[in-house]
Amino acid sequence: MKLPLLYDVALSLLLARGRQSLVAAVGVTFSITMFIALLSFMAGLNQLLDGLVLNRTPHVRLYNEVQPAPQQPIDRYTAPGPRQHNFIRSIRPRNELPRIHNAGAIIAALRHDPRVRGVAPKTQAQVFYNVGTINLTGTISGIEVEQENRLFAFGDYVVAGNLLSISTVSNSIILGKAAADLMLVGVGDIVQITTVKGNRVPLKVVGLFQSGILEVDKVQSYTSLLTAQKLLGEANNYVTDVQVKLHDFSLAPPLAREYAQRYDVQALDIQTANSQFETGTFIRTLISYTVGITLLIVAGFGIYNILNMMIYEKMDTIAIFKAIGFSGADVQRLFVAVALAIGLSGGAAGLLFGFGLSVLISYVPFHPASLPTVHFYPVSFNPVFYGIGAVFSLITTYLAGYFPARKASRVDPVDIIRGK
């Protein structure tokens, strides 16, 4: 049977059951709309939450942690034999500073590595913020501000002052906003800190930093690399951390092992440091896809029921079609075409409304106090979501129309006419 004739008959059937066809198309439209909006919003939320930590985390971190000596003096004095055992309690760590030895050469070598996008050294200093007679525990990170801003978008989290001031103003500090609120200080004020060696040093506040994690902002502050080294009373080659950003962060685990062995340091890759965030992202995405696909399946059942009722009510018409020369395959193609017409029209409208709803959500104001860089609800306009929605709408509606169409193709016109 010629396809144009089948399409004309399918259109006639759709118009004859116009209200039911419209309801089925609206069901597909609603399902696709919510599928697109839900996935777009959830993907945007995942990017926001992961970015709070992952964008501020190096792909590979090189450091030296205080560890007990692997070989104790008693082991050096007497080698244990088959009948001798040395039992040692309260093992003391080695008398070494938590610094990276030969840090300058390591940084230079990393910057010439083609797999590395950038390197940012850091010096960590434990201090006390002096507030009258009260001391608050804090951590000051000495950084190269240009590298920190380029690799970790440090400037996005500076909510007051100028981030470059710590490299131009001597003895200056960018204070965590939560710590500044506790001490009632702002940009231009002087804060007193005490180092672990007991030295009391005044620092000028040139900026306020807000990461979005309250407990971090209560203790974390930043200064220049040189100022942090002066606070610790160390030379200008004293570095406790080397932060490495890669062109491809999936290479972080093998490169961490390689760097640890090559430079005799400890190395931590981003996947190990933030595995819980990847798990949370996966679970949220899985829930979004599950809910969206469930909506599509429910819409498919609606189409299935409508086509079943249409076939039941059009038994006489199907018998006439077969009597005038329509084959079983023609009848099956006819009702599959009806289902696909509902799916195509409803799916196209759903993609359009889904995009519109996503745009609308992205313009809704959102000003969380802990996230200074966020002003609207996060939405991801990933084309993959629209492709998945279109494919699933076609598959669902095809299957919803195939089984009733197969039933219609097996109708015997003689039995129908004899029954009448």
Key words describing this protein structure:
ten-stranded mixed β-sheet; single chain; 10 strands; alpha+beta; 2 domains
Describe the structure.
This protein is of the alpha+beta class and 420 residues long. It folds into two domains: 3-54 and 277-419, no CATH class; 60-66 and 96-272, no CATH class. It has helices at 3-16, 18-54, 73-77, 103-111, 145-152, 165-168, 177-183, 214-217, 225-232, 252-263, 270-273, 275-313, 315-323, 328-362, 383-409, 413-419; strands at 60-63, 116-131, 134-143, 158-161, 172-176, 190-195, 200-209, 220-224, 241-246, 266-269. Strands 1, 2, 3, 4, 5, 6, 7, 8, 9 and 10 form a ten-stranded mixed sheet that branches.
Write a short abstract of this structure:
This protein is of the alpha+beta class and 420 residues long. 55% of the residues lie in helices and 17% in strands. Strands 1, 2, 3, 4, 5, 6, 7, 8, 9 and 10 form a ten-stranded mixed sheet that branches.
